[in-house]
């Protein structure tokens, strides 16, 4: 198990991985359709997208948290 202090980074790693997997899969399908090359193209697109998405999530997450905090009612 990892220490709790790594939870935000692990969350960003998993979320960016899943989202980039989904979006790259859809984009690859729309670009080339299902065929012999689909899996290889998707894997390459996913790895490239994840390499960008993960650091972006780490940088933007604190900003998004602050924005959401301003947009929601805290119940007071």
Question: What does this entry look like structurally?
Answer:
- By secondary structure, the chain is mainly α.
- It has one domain.
- It is 79% helix and 0% strand.
- It has two helices and no strands.
- It is elongated.
- The mean pLDDT is 95.
From the N-terminal CA to the C-terminal CA, the straight-line distance is 37 Å
Structural class: mainly alpha
Largest sheet: none
**Overall number of strands:** 0
Radius of gyration: 16 Å
Précis, in short:
This protein is mostly helical and 76 residues long.
Set down the secondary structure blueprint:
Layout: H1 7-32, H2 38-71
Write out key terms for the chains shown:
76 residues, mainly alpha
